[in-house]
Amino acid sequence: MATDGTEIPQTDEEWREALTDEEYEILRERGTEPKFSGELLDQKADGAYACAGCGTELFDSETKFDSGSGWPSFYDAEGAVELRADDRHGMTRTEVVCASCEGHLGHVFEDGPEPTGQRFCINSVALEFEEG
Ligand code: FE
Q: Which of 46, 78, 100, 103 is a Cys-bridge partner for 27, taking CB atoms 3.0 to 4.6 Å apart?
């Protein structure tokens, strides 16, 4: 994790120092990790998933499900994320970013399970798992 949530980097230089190259590429350059590569893909323990950039809790393990997509998937968010239209790569998608540090997390799709019908498709690299 880059910070304890109290000191969010401000400049690009600070972000480069705070994050690993992989984290920087996903969080700050809106990259995507290869599918089925994520450490947290098969994490099934109880706990919270926090932003790897700033430590804000974003998802609860209760809403995690196996989507088969190859990326950690959740059917709900804690309200600490923001949604943005994303028409890059010739697709019309909804980007999910951390509301605190604006780090890119992934995308949300409308083909998720009940009760929300949403599928938050999130890069494992953008998350830190906190058991408990
Ligand atoms: Fe964040």
A: 103
* Contact predicate 105/126, CB 8 Å: yes
Residue 25 pLDDT class (50, 70, 90 cuts): very high
Q: By the 8 A CB rule, do 50 and 103 touch? A: no
Distance 79 CA to ligand 1 centre (A): 12
- The one catalytic residue in 54, 98, 101, 121 is 121
Q: Establish whether 121 is a catalytic residue.
A: yes
Structural domain includes residue 37: yes
- Please give the Cα distance from 31 to 132 (Å, whole number): 29
Mean pLDDT throughout 94-118? 98
Q: Is residue 66 part of a domain?
A: yes
Cα–ligand 1 centroid distance for 81 (angstroms): 9
Looking only at the bridges linking them, the beta strands covering 127-131 and 73-74 are unpaired
Is 64 contained in some domain?
Answer: yes
